[in-house]
Fold:
Amino acid sequence: MPLPKDFWEQLPLKTDAELYEMLAHREDYLPEALAAAKDELSKRNLAPERVAQLEAGVRTQKAAAESKAQERLGWPMRIFIFIFCAGLFGAVLAVYYDSKGYKQKSTDCWVTLGVNPDRSLKPSRALGGGR
Structure:
């Protein structure tokens, strides 16, 4: 699939850090875009120290995102949700946490609301499936 013209126009304008960020989040980009980012980085002939600095920055960002995703919802907030946020507002709060990267907080909201947060489509054992 050919990449749009504006992608090719913006690619040389991206910073080194932005290009490394693309490569760090491969799931968000087409293979063609990733190959173009690699080519652009190779054209820049970055010093090994700069490459190490960029890679360290990407690792730090990934660690921060993982930490954020694992952060639990505190008990005061769980009690608040249980008492005051049952129904639609509680569900909106769970979706909000999920969209901001707080995966565990989102799951905790759903559990507090009494909803199974397991979104997989596995058949239930009670229905004769999922051995």
